[in-house]
Write a structure and sequence with these properties.
The complex is a heterodimer of chains A (97) and B (835). Chain A is mainly α. Chain A has helices spanning 6-33, 36-46, 54-83, 89-92. The chains are: A mainly alpha (97), B alpha+beta (835).
């Protein structure tokens, strides 16, 4: 639970959102300007879940995008605390007396 | 830009723990998405939006009109794809033209080319996994790739007209492959997780070898060996006569020695048959195999000039066996000889240059399989250390071929092929059995086909046909020259002349008197030219005339002859054949076996109950058409199956031969008509012989058929339509059900001109062409499938579902220039330019 502090949650959310949104936008492009729907249909059939399961490939792709974005953000955020952040001066020198 | 430092609390173990956990989670997710999923590659690579499956959604862009710079061309080439996806190629030189054919083959069928080559070369395990190992071992043993390697060297040294063609073709394929980035790979490569390799001359010849083997890889000697062991020589010959029984066109039995005793053990024979069966999905082996071609002279047509029909029967597959194309190049000089160039259209094999069916505006051609026996088996004696074999009185060193087979996910399997002077050893199961085959002589056929593609008359056609040696084919010919044109047909191929054995059975390999002494001379091959009858034909029936000197060289087991009987009947009855007649003949579904046997059945069968009486009534008045809506067709086919089983099944069971092939139906037809009290009708089950005649067995078979159909289709015979139990199915080479088409209710059966053998017919007319020499632009063609191998393309199956299934044809016109193609018929124009 401690891992998911509010900052971490925001980082994870932002990462997931950024990657999945950009991938979703690309998929919209594939569907509009390519044969995305037919392809997704075909993959649904190949996977044995039926011709109407065009959403499956789409959802799987977006899930992968969400996971990549979230984990990238999580790793990046936690890593940055170790390697990029500096301790505040006040904390470095505690007031005397 | 200097940013103020990010600040926070001091690093602590907790921060390290958080980072470590995040990193570990990332690694786990990375590993999960990078791991193969069964036979598929990783989910990550499949789902990657840029290089994974999604990029297939743009695959059609590569076929849009554009100019593409490629290395290896001497001048620009125009490729027009018409609205059916057919490629029309216009080049300034022959080499550039064949380069472009290689390019479009790869554009439309790259994975098909790759996987068919892999099958032939024994490299399927590398991409499909260990389940393909037995298939790979079989093809490594046959040695198609070894033969191709030798052939590639020989053809390069020969430097004949095929040499520049095949080199240009390979360069064209590779120009396309090297233009691809991973996102551009066809979907099958992505699903299987591998990349296309560069194409080579050897690969073209290896793939050609697969087609050749599929047409000549006859192992009936082994089956016959087993049959003789079970039944004895006399009975085995009754079951599989030296020449097919019944009416044959043309046929004349010739004597073959029956004194041979089979030396091959059951275990060894069964082992080879088992290995071949495992490899059978990759070769065109199916029930009702065969092909048709016929040509009608001008004195029997409505136009006064010939018509030529051809429809080769091969395995139905997607992507389709054939690729339709048209090629125009100027004349050229090669090795000092002038050639007219290529103005040819027709059916090509993806992976191979050459037009195997088609016309060049002067002549037309097409092939059927001769079905000659060109494989013999020898029981060899090896030294105890397996380094030598005995031949005659002396020992000779065995040849050993190291054939390491890469297996996906499992490293490499060391496989060795041992060969005697006869050929590779195909089994070591109790005995060492080698095979001598004309397949090792494969290599010069492209030279023959290119010559035919350029031939202007029968002399040039025959001069080229002599170089076609493997597999033996019956090549039909027609031209429109002179007042009435010319027609002809000839068998081409190497037919071995055997010393001291017939070739029907395996023989002792140590006995040097059993040997091939040469081949039948070309001029002695069966052929007919401009016959008085006004027509020529072949349907895989015995090709040679009465008294033919080299009968034993061509073999004993041929098609039963029902299709030949039918086309002879149609052509002899029609003295003014029209284009519509030619279509009607090609789509004909009359079963001449039914025509022969059903009248006897109606005379001798007495229905045992009301349902049987209704079923018999369906057969009465039947026109013998195996129509999809006919219930009589269902009853006949089911009856025929039981009639064979009820006649011979007890004999096979008593001889412990139930796993062997039953006789061809014409053998039973012959007994039915000419020997109604034959001992084969006796019931020998249970260890006793009960004398019976045909009437008893025919009644029994009819009852069995009715019982079966009631079980499957219910108690109303009028609803037992043929199309409800008989289907056509078009499998994808990957075996993926989602890429298959069908099953579709189908007409015809294994004996009809429009052939559709078995209850689920997975083979049949793979290309239909009708050439009209009055106006070549009235010619017609069609094939099951479509031009594209991309399942997302409209051209993946548009020929099949749009025309073929309905018995329709598409125009097969010459388009002499790119500009001659009407704009509304053009889908795209690609210009290849030298880079």
């Amino acid at each position: 639970v401690g891992l998911l502090s509010s900052r971490v949650r925001r980082a994870v959310l932002l990462g997931a959102l950024a990657v999945s949104t950009s991938w979703a936008a690309y998929l919209v492009y594939v569907f509009v300007f390519g044969q995305g729907l037919q392809l997704a249909d075909l993959v649904g059939q190949i996977l044995g879940v039926g011709a109407e399961a065009w959403w499956l490939l789409t959802v799987l792709t977006l899930v992968l995008g969400i996971l990549l974005g979230a984990l990238g953000a999580l790793t990046g955020y936690t890593g940055s605390r170790l390697f990029l952040w500096e301790a505040p001066a006040a904390a470095a020198e505690a007031p005397k007396g | 830009v200097d940013h103020p430092p990010l600040t926070g609390g001091p690093s602590s173990r907790r921060d390290w723990a958080k980072f470590g956990t995040a990193l570990a989670l990332s690694v786990v997710v990375f590993a999960v998405f990078s791991a193969p999923v069964g036979p598929l590659p990783s989910l990550g690579s499949l789902l990657d939006p840029t290089t994974g499956l999604w990029s297939v959604a743009f695959a059609q862009r590569g076929l849009q009109s554009q100019t593409i710079g490629v290395p290896g061309l001497s001048a620009p080439v125009t490729i027009v794809r018409d609205v059916m996806g057919v490629s029309h190629i216009y080049a300034a030189s022959a080499s550039d033209g064949w380069f472009a054919l290689g390019f479009v083959h790869a554009q439309d069928r790259l994975w098909q080319m790759d996987i068919q080559y892999r099958a032939a070369a024994g490299r399927l395990s590398e991409v499909l996994g260990p389940s393909m190992l037995s298939t790979d071992e079989f093809f490594r043993s046959i040695g198609l790739n070894r033969i191709a390697k030798a052939g590639a060297v020989a053809r390069a040294q020969a430097n004949d007209i095929d040499t520049p063609v095949i080199n240009a073709y390979v360069a064209g394929v590779n120009a396309y492959i090297t233009s691809l980035d991973p996102p551009d790979y066809p979907i099958e490569f992505k699903l299987l997780g591998y990349r296309p390799e560069l194409w080579t001359v050897e690969k073209t010849l290896t793939e050609g070898g697969l087609i050749a083997w599929s047409l000549m890889g006859d192992l009936s000697d082994l089956q016959y060996n087993l049959l003789v062991q079970k039944f004895g020589s006399t009975k085995a010959q009754e079951l599989f006569p030296n020449y097919p029984a019944g009416a044959q066109y043309p046929i004349q039995p010739s004597s073959v020695s029956a004194s041979e005793t089979p030396p091959l053990s059951e275990a060894a024979a069964q082992d080879i048959l088992h290995k071949a069966a495992l490899a059978s999905p990759w070769i065109a082996d199916f029930e009702g195999a065969g092909s048709n071609n016929w040509a009608v002279a001008g004195n029997r047509t409505d136009t006064g000039l010939p018509y030529l029909d051809a429809d080769p029967h091969l395995q139905f597959q997607l992507p389709a066996v054939w690729y339709e194309a048209e090629l125009h190049t100027p004349g050229f000089t090669w090795n000092g000889s002038p050639y007219p160039g290529y103005d040819v259209r027709g059916a090509t094999f993806p992976g191979i240059p050459g037009f195997f069916f088609g016309t060049n505006g002067h002549i037309a051609w097409g092939e059927t399989n001769t079905g000659a026996d060109v494989n013999d088996f020898f029981v060899e004696q090896l030294s105890s250390d397996k380094t030598e074999y005995l031949y005659g009185a002396s020992w000779h060193p065995l040849t050993v071929y190291a054939e390491p087979i890469a297996v996906k996910g499992e490293g490499t399997v060391d496989y060795k092929v041992y060969a005697t002077g006869h050929g590779p050893i195909l089994t070591e199961e109790g005995q060492n059995v080698s095979m001598q085959s004309t397949i090792v002589l494969f290599g010069e056929e492209l030279r023959a086909m290119l010559g035919i593609n350029m031939a202007r008359n029968s002399d040039e056609f025959n001069a080229s046909a002599q170089f076609w040696r493997v597999p033996a084919q019956n090549v039909i010919y027609a031209d429109g020259s002179g007042l009435q044109g010319h027609i002809g047909i000839r068998s081409t191929g190497y037919f071995p002349i055997r010393a001291n054995f017939s070739g029907r059975l395996p023989v002792d390999g140590t006995n040097a008197s059993y040997r091939w002494t040469g081949f039948v001379p070309f001029d002695a091959y069966p052929h007919v030219w401009d016959p008085a009858s006004g027509y020529v034909w072949s349907n895989n029936e015995v090709p040679y005339p009465p008294g033919y000197e080299y009968a034993t060289s061509l073999g004993s087991l041929f098609d039963p002859g029902y299709r030949a009987r039918r086309i002879h009947e149609l052509l002899s009855a029609d003295s003014r054949v029209s284009l519509e007649d030619m279509k009607r003949f090609q789509l004909d579904i009359l079963d001449t076996a039914a025509q022969s046997v059903v009248p006897i059945l109606l005379a001798v069968v007495h229905p045992s109950d009301g349902v049987a009486a209704q079923a018999l009534a369906q057969l009465s008045g039947w026109d013998y058409d195996m129509d999809a809506n006919s219930s009589a067709a269902s009853i006949w086919y089911t009856y025929m199956t039981y009639y064979l089983e009820d006649t011979f099944g007890d004999d096979y069971a008593a001889a412990d031969a139930s796993n062997l092939t039953l006789p061809q139906f014409n053998t039973l037809e012959n007994l039915t008509q000419n020997d109604p009290s034959s001992h084969w009708f006796d019931n020998v089950s249970g260890g006793t012989i009960v004398t019976q005649n045909r009437t008893v067995v025919m009644n029994q078979a009819f009852d069995d058929a009715v019982t079966h159909l009631v079980d499957v289709l219910g108690p109303m015979p009028s609803t037992w339509t043929w199309g409800s139990i008989h289907f056509g199915q078009y499998e994808h080479l990957s075996g993926l059900a989602a890429l298959r088409r069908g099953p579709y209710p189908a007409a015809g059966d294994g004996f009809t001109l429009n052939v559709a053998g078995g209850l689920v017919s997975e083979g049949g007319p793979s290309w239909r062409q009708i050439i009209d020499f009055r106006d070549l632009n009235r010619s017609l063609a069609i094939y099951p499938g479509g031009q594209s191998g991309n399942p997302l393309s409209v051209h993946y199956d548009d020929f099949l579902v749009g025309s073929y299934l309905a018995g329709r044809y598409l125009p097969f016109r010459e388009q002499p220039t790119a500009e001659s193609i009407p704009a509304q018929s053009v889908e795209s124009t690609i210009t290849l330019v030298p880079r």
